[in-house]
Amino acid sequence: MLALEKLQSWVIEERLAGNPFSHGAALATVDKLGQSRTRMLGVHFDEQVYPRFHTSPTSRKVADLAGKQRASLTFAFQTSLRSVSLEGRLVELSKSQLDKDWLSLEPAFRRSYLIFGQTSGLVLESKQVLETALKKLPVDAELVRPDYFIGYQLVDIQRIAFYSVGKQAFAEHEVWTFDDLSKQWVQQFLVP
Ligand SMILES: Cc1cc2nc3c(=O)[nH]c(=O)nc-3n(C[C@H](O)[C@H](O)[C@H](O)COP(=O)(O)O)c2cc1C
User: Fold this and answer.
1) How far is the CA of 118 from the centre of ligand 1 (A)?
2) Per the domain annotation, does 143 fall within a domain?
3) Can you list the residues of the chain whose pLDDT is less than 70?
4) Ligand 1 close to Cβ of residue 146 (< 6 A)
């Protein structure tokens, strides 16, 4: 899909411009009472460049998504003064995808995750407890994905907005909308 390829190229250009977390995006969800919330995530792309991320079952986003799968992701490319916002539906990643993703992460991160991932977002009584548990973790424990490493992929994307502020008089606002009737993407430029 052309717009997703453009997103990926903007992620790469932002990284080359000096942002080491260019694949970071803010995920917006809404809870069952209608309270909206956002938080930063590391976003990865699969072969068809559909964005996906990983998280812990105890985080609030998981409860929000259990009620309503609709969500948005915004990449804020602050170094290149660009942003990309996507609106769609989040579906859980398959076990085989999670296994593959788990092994692609740095071993040190995987070891830490084995300690914090199960209770992420709950009240921390003492940081020492985490440090001690990490020291006691058996060698090679990180080779097996824990079931509390989960993730989602953004699918049924309805709208992707690219916004770019350059040196010219007007910023550029390009929006791709999926037309359900014709099953075609429509590209439009909006007044910035
Ligand atoms: C640089 C950075 C990267 C992060 N990456 C992730 C991530 O990939 N997955 C995740 O669940 N939380 C990540 N977080 C933490 C989230 O922003 C958030 O605090 C946490 O997931 C709790 O969110 P909740 O409101 O859904 O409970 C990251 C935070 C930062 C600052």
Assistant:
1) 14
2) no
3) none
4) no
